[in-house]
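Dear colleague,

Thank you for sharing your sequence with our group. We've completed the structure prediction you requested, and as agreed, I am returning the results in plain text so they can be pasted directly into your records. Please verify that the sequence below matches your submission; if there's any discrepancy, let me know and we will rerun it promptly.
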Amino acid sequence: MNDSNTQTSNIQIRNILITASLLMVFAVIGAVLVGITFMQTKDDIEYNEKLTLLKQLNTIIPSEAYDNDLLLDTIVVEANAQLGTSEDTLAYRARKGDKDVAVVLSSVAPNGYNGSIYMLVGINVDGTLAGVRVVKHRETPGLGDAVSLTHSDWILSFDNKSLSDPDEKGWKVKRDGGVFDQFTGATITPRAVVKAVHNTLLYFNAYKTTLFSKQGTEGKSNSKGRNSKQPDNKQPE
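Please find the predicted structure tokens below.
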């Protein structure tokens, strides 16, 4: 009887161990599959983010204006009060052949009506604005959100402007004596954007040589992502 009970107990223990082992194997396989899926999804997410960024950059600098890889020809710009940035950002350089074409800088207008307004500011090598795009804001719908190209073409009024056109006095909204329109019922938002764009031009004027340097800017260079999947510069609209 005791031998029978011992045999039954051994069989139960063996079954438990087999079940536990199978569960462990399935857990390991599941973890591996989740890891593989995560890495594939992560690559796809990063690729789509780069594609979205490239499309934004190409609304400022048309793809036919340059022949380098805009997403790889980047330099790190340290946080700077003139740019309104609180952390390091990337500047994207456009070149054609051996000639510099333009650079796109990240700029922040910290004093929008509802908080900071984040922008991409493209500046041609001659100091004229290639274009400005608002990429993030919390301005009032129907009023301050007119800074976004999806709501009005006001932001296009910066195209081809420079530090000399208009002069310093002109870099204000019309209500303050400048040349830029304000919005009906909303002056704070366009005033903040105009000031931020002007400050970005001043920054470019001070650091132009460094910004286009192939050694990077302010002692830093960027090589992150050179081995990751990159979208083609010539993506269709």
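Summary note from our side: The helical segments are 2-60, 188-212.

Kind regards,
the structure core
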